[in-house]
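Example 3.2
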Amino acid sequence: MKKKITVYCGSSPKALIPSHVEQTKQLATFMAKNKIGLVYGGSNIGLMQVISNTVLDNGGEVTGVYPHIFTKNNEHEFANPRLKVDNLILVDTMHQRKQIMSDLGDAYIALPGGVGTMEEFLEIITWYSLKIHSKPIWIFNMDGFYKPLFDLFDTMNKECRIKNWNPSMCVNTMQELEKNILDFYTSQSQNMSHLLKN
């Protein structure tokens, strides 16, 4: 079974906070060494560039999903030129991008980003709450970046009872994230072995 995780993160040069860059590189290296492919938005800027290039530098596999509209309307953003032709999926709309990124990933990770990043992973959380999918979601709270969001989630869950809310979506350290990923794939492997025996 090929392993792939979809990662949502910022594509702005302003998002390149040194500690965020370092932790993103750690995650990318971990994924490559554990033969976990990266699915991401295809861009060659910001944390998107950092994670994709670091996975490639460590011999990992990267799939980018990139809307045509960016190549037409944004002179500052472009697809990662290091992606092979068959590893870059060009789509017409943002909706198509999100659907394909959702379909390709076994699980989802949100790193720091802007409103685009939040819009993408909040939709994945919504789909989870509606039981459209049951894949793991991890929001990586680098240096407290997502603490205000975690606090809001806690308030919403207490007052509105978020459907199927899973607090384990919120992770604070690289060690915690890596453990969650390894536990998930170990469980998947055990389930597959069990099915094959039966």
